[in-house]
Amino acid sequence: MKDKQKVELNKKIKNEIETLKRTVEELKETIDPVAPDDAIGRLSRLDTMLNQGINKSSISQSLDRIMKLGNALIRIDEDPFFGECQECGEQIPFARLIALPESRFCVDCAE
Question: What is the pLDDT of residue 37?
């Protein structure tokens, strides 16, 4: 992988991590418990609880992706084999790395 590509990928990962962190903070505000004495109605309460579950799942997925992106950020600088498929050893296309910087496999081996 060329140095210019590493710089571009590094920048993309850092931007994505910051975006995900902001998203997590916004979602955390939506998962506060609904007090049973709030007069919002039974169906509204159920709808709110369903949305909270979805938001909790989104937070979990975002935190997992932040961790994977952080690991990719470290690997860019420290792993001489970064950008190579861990299965077949072929170069992972740069377009795939831009789309999914945490990818460790080429498209064929990821299936």
Answer: 59
